[in-house]
Design the sequence.
């Protein structure tokens, strides 16, 4: 059993996966799409990955505003989560994702990833951070 972490964005979805013991989270990939409304292929890829990695649960970052209010992005994320839940049949949980992208950028910089290559890893690293928070809170 594994848990999948997702960082939902308007054009990308970062994907991370836990180890089978649910201790660590690793960035897996970034799914890109042409526009926010083009979600069918993204859902198909998430479903395929969930089956391949024997995922039992999915965690999605909830992009609350810094003052803890829920804005437009939260509504879009909740709608996306319903589609993921319906498509995969898996339970979906949420983690507050405020500042995870900034933290992911910092991790990549400290890891020596060159500026021109950071964007391709940023969303999956943010997903790994979201998943890490969830795994820590489960303990």
Sequence:
């Amino acid at each position: 059993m594994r848990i999948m972490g997702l960082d939902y964005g308007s054009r990308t979805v970062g994907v991370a996966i836990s180890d089978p013991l649910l201790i660590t989270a690793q960035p897996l990939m970034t799914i890109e799409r042409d526009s926010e409304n083009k979600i069918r292929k993204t859902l198909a890829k998430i479903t395929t990955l969930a089956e391949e990695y024997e995922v039992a649960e999915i965690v999605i970052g909830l992009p609350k505003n810094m003052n803890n209010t829920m804005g437009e992005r939260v509504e879009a994320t909740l709608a996306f989560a319903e589609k993921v839940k319906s498509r995969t049949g898996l339970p979906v949980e949420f983690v507050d994702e405020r500042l995870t992208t900034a933290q992911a950028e910092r991790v990549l910089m400290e890891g020596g990833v060159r500026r021109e290559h950071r964007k391709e890893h940023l969303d999956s690293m943010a997903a790994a951070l979201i998943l890490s928070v969830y795994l820590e809170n489960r303990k």
Residues 108 and 114 are 8 Å apart (CA to CA). The two ends are 16 Å apart (CA to CA). The chain has one domain: 2-138. The chain has four helices and five strands.
